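Researcher: Last one for today. Full complex below.
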Amino acid sequence: MSDELIVKDHNQVFEEEVFQKTFADKKEFECGASEEVVAQQLEFSKSAEYKELNFGRKFLKINPAKACQPLGAILAASGFDGCLPYVHGSQGCTAYFRSHFNRHFKEPFSAVSDSMTEDAAVFGGHKNMYEGLKNAMTIYKPKMIAVCTTCMAEVIGDDLNAFIGNAKDEGYIPNEFPVPFAHTPSFVGSHVTGYDQMMRGFLFYFTKGKPKAATNNGKVNIIPGFDGYTVGNTREIKRMLDMMGAGYTILGDNSDILDTPMDGTYRMYDGGTTIEEVSDAHNAIATISLLGDSTSKVTKACVEADWEAQYMDITPLGVDGTDAFLMKMSELTGKEVPESLSIERGRALDAMADSNLYLHGKKFSIFGDTSYVEALVDFYMELGAEPLHIVCTNGTKRWGKQLRKKLAATEFGKDAQVHDGADLWHLRSLMYETKPDFLVGSTYGKQICTEMDVPLVRIGFPIFDRHHLHRYPTFGYQGVINILQWTVNTLLDDLDRKASDFNNDFVR
Amino acid sequence: MFLPKHAEIFEEPSCDHNAKKEKAGCPKPTPGKVGGGCTFDGAFSSLVPIADAAHIVHGPIGCSGNAWNNRGAQSSGDKLYRQAFTTRFLNNDVVFGGEKKLYKAVREIIEEYNPPAVFIYQTCVTAMIGDDITALAKVVEQKTGVPVITVEAPGFTGNKNLGNRLSGEAILKKVIGTQEPKTQHPYNINLIGEFNIAGEFWYVAPLLDQMGVRLICSLSGDARFHQVAMMHRAQLNMMVCSRALLNVARSLEKDYQIPWFEGSFYGAKNTTQALMTIAEHFGEPALVEKTKQVIADEYGLIEAELEQIKARLKGKRALLYTGGVKSWSLVGAIQELGMEVVATGAKKSTEEDKQRIRELMGEDATMIEDGSAKALLDLYHDRDAHVLMAGGRNQYTAVKGKIPFVHVNQERHTAFAGYQGFLNLARQLDKAINSPAFALAKAPFPAVS
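Model: Here's the assembly. Have a good evening.
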């Protein structure tokens, strides 16, 4: 239709004269600083002097790249068959969590809260818990309910074990109904801590008091961890292990519930690790955690101390990482790595060689969760790219120290700066000091990248502003190809965008 | 510590439902059911659009980490509101108190950014351990001269609407009336409860300009701190979103004799009515004439295409599920397109909002209280609807049910206000209902023989 009215959106609307006038008039009320002063201040914020001021900050966090414990807890809980994640505390927290996962996975996400209010703050949250468990069970008919907490319940010291026990004793829910739980205050740790707590909650709940079988069950437990790519990754891990014929149990398999089909049926529950599987987990050959930071404290302890079983961290990201994972699986299960996987490996190496020239020697900054960041840095170094700044808001001092030591011994990483505990406002200062060729991180890196005109390779959690990335694996040899192509094509797009006329080539 | 103060807030004399014993407009959530946002969220989201101020969340990582920069309230200039400032409360702070940390954090903000004001938001944890943020704000103000506004709306207090209202209290107490406009103008207005989602107010602002009416402040879409401070110099207030910030309008009426009216910029009819009410208020025939002209010109731009779309949408049925004001303000706009609204959400609506819904949809209007995914889908099929209009948390549920969907909450990217926004809304409905992707999904899978 040729006479269609062009309704300008908010990106173009300002170009019109009438808007220019509106905004000019508005300035009178804004009482802002003059444009000159604003420009000066902006320049100052890019300076070395400002960086010093910024790093002198002790009490304030600006743009933190981390989330809170219950977020991780309910992601872990969503990976169990028929499980309803339940948050004991204020309802607003739960609404935030659901939005967060909706926006990242572009999927519905079910989680309920027992909506504690002021009276609960004064008298304790047990009544909310009783009513809540009863209502959740009646309305949403889960096979189990996994309970975690918000700060509010933690500050008043609600005891989940006692509350759940009482709820059963007093008949609000049946005695045999499974309710694994974990205490997950937001003021301790981050979302990976919450994942750890809840995973341990499940393992402990379903195996406690159960004697170990005389022989192992022939399977290796695989824990996916807090992974924004859990849909693609869990499926990729299963595919590779099926190709090997190795026995495995995914503990917390949320790849189906976070990717349900559009077929007219809304599924509140779909797939996931069954009660039978998790109840047998202590009889496994060993337990491999794919993202160590998501299991490093209590889950690890549960496997090693309670089960007296073998636990190890292997992130199958990059060629080395995937190799290590498959070799270990082969060693544990006695199954050979099949030829077909060797061919996939060869293809991944071939792809890396194809793009090598665009990545070798490129300098990058990166932020995210510790295990992911570490694995990604390793992979980028396999490509000859050099890490400049590594920022992990939820990284501990100890982690930082270890990584610095490890990188100092590498060819490409020896000049990298590791900033544990730093936030994204720190990262901005760092990037103004030394501008990288690209930044790797979640959507939260967008502000800096737009401001500095640095390409952002979106890998991490959360990704709100791009679609479908979570469907692709970052693990395995397929993951190598995916990360490689996201990176090189982002750089090539950037190159094209900035290319002058004579360099606007068809072939790259 | 909170109960008495909040009890007062509930006694909002302009709210009809408060005459009754049950405060039906401010319902308590049910434990164990899928719930919505909290008081903190309501307060934070209604003030954060004040774009040149620094907004610091005094609490653990979650409250800020899960909430920063994710609402579509746009700013035409300053961007400081997009930065997430937080004290990131830790274990030790819970034990020893967080006042010192907050004090230093606010000082650090002022040192690094020198904003016109700092807003401090209380959260569940810091409220429960009893951090006195108001006393602390005074000290910072004395030392730095920068206004520090405290918003005492911890999440556990209740629902989102209450948070909106508490945020209103905060600015009434500390901000409004502290500054005078530099120049005089015959016709000054404020908008209250307009958040400039997806920049939609920018379809309305130039119309006011053309009419010759001066907007002192829009609370809080694209607002600046100083604009809020001058709100008491308007001669008329328009309440745009629900009655959530009603306390601001009422207070300005009581203390500064500024009358207010309720209106909406969703739909051409609503917009016309709002603009005419503004023009007629000043009793100046020339202004009324000018306004009529502006309306005619602007409506003329969209009329032809609107009529075409209306022909396609006629008789289609929409299921609207959204909180508060949009439950009625959007109803009018959808009906204006010749569509039928078969049910509308009322979980967060006040009793007054519900009355409005009844006026628009009839006494038997279906108001949705259970917003769970399943309930919505059941209702959708039960009423044989053609499109679901709701917020982000329901978008993906709708898709699973092969249901055409139009996003109407804060994360949306399309502006719906004013005349051109109304055309956007019509286009979106048209696209959703007549989408080829949904037609494909509804066709049976090719039979495997």
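Confidence is low (pLDDT under 50) at residues 1-7, 13-25 of chain B. The longest strand of chain B covers residues 188-194.
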